[in-house]
Design a protein that fits this description.
This protein is α+β, with helices and mostly antiparallel strands. It is built from six helices and 18 strands. The strands form two sheets. Strands 1, 2, 3, 4, 5, 6, 7, 8 and 9 form a nine-stranded mixed sheet that branches. A six-stranded mixed beta barrel has the order 10-11-12-13-16-17. Strand 13 and strand 14 form a beta hairpin. Helix 2 packs across helix 3. The longest helix has 16 residues. The radius of gyration is 21 Å and the shape is globular.
């Protein structure tokens, strides 16, 4: 591994045995103004296969391209599909740095069993991410506000029709150089408060980056966008009162001298950026509490003048200010 690719966490314990197949024609990365988010992909990807009784095998870096899977694959019929998302940045001195790669790898490995899936161990996932970024380091943009987004993905590939876990899996990583997630950059976003549909309930998949979680959110997100809002704030499944998470972000709210965010309890994602922000805020002397808070508490605080900053955090969104909440009774300006 090149010494100029770094991760601010302990080094991996062993090296990954990789096969490399280069694309016959490489491309130049577009300019920063052309990037957007998730629309452009690097020349190569990582892939590795699993079979029950054999384990993980055939780790390889190959040209980015279509996958060939059986039409009966469990990912297509029974939703055995999950993913991660993390970023590599180019520092001012030219080094490429992967942000908290081990934490992302551990989250993926720990979430897979909830879907009945077999994931590579966290060390292997981390090594694969580092190896692919090192190989495609020219795709890491240098302009402020840009990064190389990594999408590790795990899918069930065994072809069968029957409700049971797959015995075969494909783990792959694709890369996308990105700019800001929201088209308006750091301009405060408008959020719709969803009071009827739910994203997740206790005992479900809310804490796992399962593809189905995002599929369940798309209808509400589309309706919110028709109203002019960028994302949806999901409330708890039981009472439809307590704030949980916002689409692709964990939400933080400042009430006077306290900053709060929803607690981890199986219905929201254990965000890596969320964890980083909590740690930094506490180190800077702020009071940060992970507790339940109702949307009505935000409304009351706004009327009393004690509602402060509201923002979301996420790998894609980074830290995004929230300027307004729309809901069935009106609008809450932050």
């Amino acid at each position: 591994m090149s010494a100029t690719l770094t991760s601010p966490e302990p080094k991996t314990s062993s090296r990954l045995d990789l096969k490399i197949i280069r694309t016959p024609r490489t491309r130049a990365m577009p300019s920063a103004s052309e990037l957007g988010f998730g629309r452009i992909f690097a020349d190569h990807m990582f892939a590795m296969d699993y079979e029950e009784g054999r384990g993980w095998f055939d780790a390889r870096i190959i040209p980015h391209g279509p996958l060939s899977i059986d039409p009966g694959a469990s990912a297509l019929h029974y939703g055995q599909a999950m993913f991660e998302g993390c970023k590599a940045f180019r520092s001012k001195d030219g080094r490429v740095q992967l942000f908290r790669g081990r934490r992302h790898a551990a989250r993926m490995a720990s979430g897979a069993p909830r879907l009945g899936m077999v994931a590579p161990d966290p060390d292997t996932i981390h090594q694969a991410m580092m190896a692919l970024v090192d190989f495609e380091r020219d795709w890491v943009p240098a302009e402020p506000g840009t990064a190389l987004y990594l999408r590790p993905t795990l899918i069930g590939t065994e072809g069968f029709l029957g409700v049971r876990p797959s015995k075969k899996y494909l783990f792959f990583i694709i890369l996308s150089p990105v700019g800001a997630y929201y088209p308006d950059g750091l301009k405060p976003v408008r959020i719709w408060v969803e009071k009827e549909l739910i994203r997740a309930a206790k005992g479900g998949l809310g804490a796992v980056k399962a593809g189905g979680n995002y599929a369940a959110s798309l209808y509400a997100a589309t309706e919110a966008q028709k109203r002019g809002f960028a994302q949806v704030l999901w409330l708890d499944a039981m009472e439809h009162r307590y704030c949980e998470e916002v689409g692709v972000m964990n939400l933080f709210v400042q009430f006077k001298d306290e900053i709060v965010t929803a607690p981890l309890g199986g219905t929201i994602l254990d965000g890596v950026t969320r964890d980083s922000v909590i740690t930094l805020l506490r180190e800077w002397g702020y009071t940060v509490n992970e507790r339940r808070y109702a949307f009505d508490e935000m409304v009351a605080a706004r009327s009393k003048g004690t509602l402060g900053e509201v923002f979301g955090t996420g790998t894609a969104a980074v830290v995004s200010p929230v300027g307004e909440f729309g809901h069935s009774e009106g609008v809450l300006q932050t």
